[in-house]
């Protein structure tokens, strides 16, 4: 038996990933796969709250699988699967629903945000944290690498594990922990707010050079003359440089800001160069994989089988714990 701890994380297939997703979460997926039993999910049933169109959903799922592979997740080492291939996730969600109260779910940030915006909220959105708890707990997960905005969801999973174990007097579920890298917990978007698909302020992770240029050039900057000293930490362009420069480069750049003479145009052009140099090989890899759909579908099919076997075993233990397993 492997003594490695289990890592699980996931991404919703709701559109192109951006560099906030990458530095906040997906980079860790690649970096950590050697040291953990690693499971990466495509959260299609979560995405169904937003994507309710057959061809768009199918394409989005395939796209996330290609993204995972292009970034370097190795299907020989890690399980890549889509949530809908393992119906046990939905089954466990139901069981969690029965031990969860409405006021507890009403405290979720995502729900409160939607409510504050007077949005019509579907039951799936309200119940989102319970499906995510099922994702995490079904696979005996120790650690969940995510960005800051998912911290509360991992806490919901942990609370739910504790509550289930207490009510049924069992140790069925492990208590998972979020893994958040502090310096990239919230990657800023081109407008300075959190980079997010829903704000339209992203730099796509597999962007073309033209897209990178357009996004970087759109970053608002102050109107001080070039020669005036500037605080780099108040500059949106510099904040993004932090992701793409090494320590020495960043120090030099910061000094030039502080001394004065570092114009926005020059800083933006440098950033475009750095981002493009970083993205170019990923773009190429992605392009190759996009032509090999059969391989990508095989990876998903195989990952789905492996994840389902694990989940079936765990559900047996859950049914036993709650008293519905009679034979
Ligand atoms: P979005 O907010 O763009 O819809 P997702 O909800 O699909 O992104 O997030 C996928 C993963 O990326 C999650 O782990 C999330 O915490 C992380 N993430 C998203 N945006 C950022 C950001 N701006 N900075 C750091 N991590 C992020
Ligand atoms: N809710 C996560 C997001 O929006 C995606 C997700 C679904 C997830 N299930 C998960 C992340 C399980 C980590 C573990 O980004």
Helix proportion: 55-70%
- Uncertain segments: none
Topology as H/E string? EHEHHEHHHHHEHEHHHHH
Helix-and-strand structural type: mainly alpha
Q: In whole angstroms, how far apart are the ends?
A: 28 Å
Name the shape in a single word.
globular
Mean pLDDT comes to 95
Identify the strand order in the major beta sheet.
1-2-3
Described by strand count, sense and barrel closure, the largest sheet is: 3 strands, parallel
Give the oligomeric state. single chain
Description:
- It is a single chain.
- This protein has 327 residues and is mostly helical.
- The chain has 2 domains: 6-186 and 293-322, Rossmann fold; 206-286, Tyrosyl-Transfer RNA Synthetase.
- The protein is built from 14 helices and 5 strands.
- The chain has helices at 19-32, 44-47, 54-71, 88-98, 102-106, 109-116, 123-126, 128-138, 151-167, 209-217, 236-244, 247-259, 264-290, 293-322; strands spanning 6-11, 37-42, 79-82, 143-145, 177-179.
- The mean pLDDT is 95.
- The structure holds adenosine-5'-diphosphate (ADP) and tryptophan.
- Residues 11-12, 20-21, 24-25, 146-147, 149-150, 184, 186-187, 194-198 line the site of adenosine-5'-diphosphate.
